Amino acid sequence: MAGLREFEALLESVPEGEKARILKWVVEELGRTFPGIDSRPDVCGGEPCIIRTRIPVWVLEQARRLGATDQTLLESYPTLRADDLRNAWAYVTAHARAIDAQIHENEAA
Predict the structure, then answer these.
(1) pTM
(2) I need a labelling partner for 14 at 20 to 30 A (CA). Which of 33, 39, 44, 93 fits?
């Protein structure tokens, strides 16, 4: 992978219109990521989880739907931080259908 300096040198030779396309692509890519949320096949079957933990986002959302407050969740999961919950709620908002499906699948099991 090229270093930042190599990328900067390469970028200088790119026409303005192409730079705009690159910027758009980067923003779209970053829009699909959520800080503090990770999804890897070897952790919880690939379900999105809070980093540093094995707590799936759908578990937190289901608890919230059942009436758990952020404070209750923080007390119940000592490894969680308030930032983790903010990240989880943002993820839930952006991926509502997927979270609903995960909750449904796990309720049926």
Answers:
(1) 0.71
(2) 33
